[in-house]
Amino acid sequence: MLPTTSPQSNGDPSSRDAARHTAGAKRYKYLRRLLHFRQMDFEFALWQMLYLFTSPQRVYRNFHYRKQTKDQWARDDPAFLVLLSIWLCVSTIGFGLVLEMGVVETLKLLLWVVFVDCIGVGLLISTLMWFISNKYLLKHPSRSFDVEWGYSFDVHLNAFYPLLVILHFLQLFFINHLVVINSDWFLGYFVGNTLWLIAIGYYLYITFLGYNALPFLSNTVVLLYPFALLGLLYLLSISLGWNFTQGLCWFYKYRVQ
């Protein structure tokens, strides 16, 4: 997370107060709370997870309140990250069961998904969006306003959660049962690819809402442009019989071999 101001080292109370809001201080506070579960507000984190599906604008409205009260856009409570990690672990174990993996293979898959797919890719996407928003979307680049890296990471987590629920949880019930989306049947890859369309669409829309909520950014509508490519890819996949879920299952099995 980047500081929103540049405090001067003059020893006055305002300078000491500003120092408490530096990127290092915020990061230390966040990481320290990871070790204290009793200090985390899991009820509020669950509320956010619910509204990310029903009314994501309300979630970002809370980020405004945090900026007014705590002088930072990013979360200072890791409860959301902890619950997201639990969701990820449970759903990955579910994938292991559905794909009939052994205990060791499921553990390997879990490590891959958590440390590469979630953390590694999340850090990469967050850094890329942080750079793009600060480089190209600021209304007044000369002023002391910038997008905190921690906020970019939070936006990614917000957008990743619905995608996780749809592709890593809801989809499990369709892979080998119901319409059997892990197959070459038209109905199978139609339903499966539609779930992918909804999940990635959620990710793009919630990402757009996150950066559009920042008053010092402009032209955030460009973050909706990938919807055109997403729609085109969806129609192309249905026409050519591509099955994204089948590809994901094959990829997961290949990883742990």
Automatic annotation (TrEMBL):
InterPro entries: UNC-50 (IPR007881). Residues 1-21 are annotated as: Disordered. Pfam families: UNC-50. GO terms for cellular component: Golgi membrane; nuclear inner membrane. The keyword Ribonucleoprotein does not apply. It is found in: Nucleus inner membrane. The chain crosses the membrane at residues 79-98, 110-132, 159-179, 186-211, 223-245. It is a multi-pass membrane protein. Residues 1-13 have a biased composition (Polar residues). Keywords: Membrane, Transmembrane, Transmembrane helix. Involved in the cell surface expression of neuronal nicotinic receptors. Binds RNA. Belongs to the unc-50 family. This is Unc-50 inner nuclear membrane RNA binding protein. It comes from Poecilia mexicana.
